[in-house]
Design brief:
The protein is α/β, with parallel strands linked by helices. Helices cover about 30% and strands about 20% of the residues. The chain contains seven helices and twelve strands. It has helices at about 5-20, 50-60, 75-85, 110-120, 175-185, 200-210, 230-240; strands at about 1-5, 25, 40-45, 65, 90-95, 105-110, 125-130, 145-150, 165, 190, 210-215, 225. Helix 3 links the parallel strand 4 (about 65) and strand 5 (about 90-95). The longest helix has 14 residues, at about 75-85. About 30% of the residues are buried. It binds NADP nicotinamide-adenine-dinucleotide phosphate. NADP nicotinamide-adenine-dinucleotide phosphate binds near residues 48, 51 and 73. The site of NADP nicotinamide-adenine-dinucleotide phosphate has 25 residues, from strand 2, helix 2 and helix 3.
C-alpha cells in the first residue's frame, strides 16, 4: 500500500503498476480531483493508529510505502506506529529537504506558528504557498496582501481582506513563478521546506529576484527507513520479497 497525495506517489503508482505488483494507493481525500493513476485507490483516513492496524490486517498488506508529503507528519507517525504493531514492512519514499544556495535570502523558521510570527511586521505583499489547510493560521496578520496558490477553488469565504487566489496544482517553473512574483509585486515568499522539484520553482524565482523567503522547517519524525527514488522503492520491495519477508 502506498500512502499518497504527492506527485512522487503518483509516479510510484505508475511504476508499481508497470512492474506488475499488486498495489493500492491510499489518499486522504483532501483534493477534489486526485491525479489519475492505474492502481486501486482508497480514499479517507483510517481512524488513527488502531484503524490503520485493522486495515493492514484486514487487507493483508505486506508492505507500506509512505509517500506522503514531508509535512503530513500525523499520517507518517501513524504509519510508523501501526506498521510496528501489525508487523508490516514500512519505508518512506521522500525527498531530501532543500538547502539554501548562494543568493538565497532565507529566514528559517521551525514551524507554521513561527512563520506566522515572522509575518508580524509592517504591510507587505506575500506569496503564501503553504496549502489550503494552514491559511487560517495566518489570519493574525491581515495587514498584508496575500497571493495564494491552491489546488482547488476555495469554497469558503476569503481568509484575508486583501488576497488573490490562483488555482493550479503544478509542477511549476522558475520562469513562470518569477513572472508571477513580478506581476503581483511580491516582496516576501512563505514556503514549506518540501524538497523535490515541483514546488522548488518559487524558491528559485525568489533567488533570482533577491526576495526574502520565510522557509518553514519540516516536522521531526521518529527514525524510519527512507528511500529517495522510485527505483529504490522497487528494489526495497523486491529485496524484502526475495528475503522471504
Ligand atoms: P496529516 O496531517 O499527516 O494527516 C491527518 C490525517 O489525515 C491522518 O491522521 C489520516 O487520518 C489522514 N491521512 C493523511 N494522509 C492520508 C493518506 N495518504 N491516506 C489516508 N489517510 C490519510 O496529513 P495532511 O498534512 O493533512 O496531508 C493530507 C494529504 O495531503 C496527504 O496524503 C499528503 O501527502 C498530502 N499533501 C500534504 C501536504 C502538506 O503540506 N501537509 C502537501 C501536499 C500534499 P486517520 O488518522 O483517520 O487515518
Amino acid at each position: 500500500m502506498i500512502l499518497g497525495g504527492t506527485t512522487e506517489a503518483t509516479a510510484l503508482g505508475n511504476a508499481v503498476h508497470a512492474a506488475g505488483l499488486q498495489a493500492l494507493m491510499s489518499l486522504a481525500g483532501r483534493v477534489e480531483r486526485p491525479a489519475r493513476q492505474p492502481i486501486r485507490r482508497r480514499i479517507g483516513g483510517f481512524g488513527g493508529v488502531s484503524g490503520l492496524v485493522d486495515y493492514l490486517r484486514t487487507e493483508q498488506i505486506t508492505h507500506v510505502i509512505d509517500a506522503t508529503h514531508p509535512f503530513a507528519a500525523q499520517m507518517s507517525r501513524n504509519a510508523i506506529a501501526a506498521c510496528a504493531e501489525a508487523d508490516v514492512r514500512l519505508v518512506a519514499f521522500t525527498r531530501p529537504p532543500w538547502v539554501a544556495k548562494a543568493g538565497d535570502r532565507w529566514q528559517r523558521v521551525s514551524d507554521i506558528a513561527a512563520a506566522v510570527a515572522a509575518l508580524d511586521r509592517p504591510v507587505c505583499r506575500v506569496m503564501l504557498a503553504v496549502g489550503r489547510m494552514h491559511l487560517k493560521t495566518f489570519a493574525p496578520n491581515p495587514q498584508h496582501f496575500y497571493l495564494l496558490r491552491l489546488v482547488d477553488t476555495p469554497k469558503t469565504p476569503p481568509v484575508f481582506p486583501n488576497q488573490h487566489v490562483l488555482v493550479s496544482r503544478g509542477p511549476f517553473t522558475a520562469a513562470a513563478d518569477q513572472a508571477l512574483m513580478e506581476e503581483f509585486a511580491i516582496d516576501l515568499v512563505v514556503s514549506k521546506n518540501s524538497g523535490g522539484a515541483g514546488a522548488y520553482a518559487k524558491v528559485a524565482a525568489a533567488r533570482v529576484l533577491s526576495l526574502p523567503v520565510v522557509m518553514i522547517d519540516r516536522p521531526a519524525l521518529p527514525v524510519r527507513a527512507e528511500v529517495f527514488s522510485v527505483g529504490d522503492v522497487l528494489d526495497w520491495v523486491h529485496g524484502a520479497t526475495e528475503r522471504g519477508v
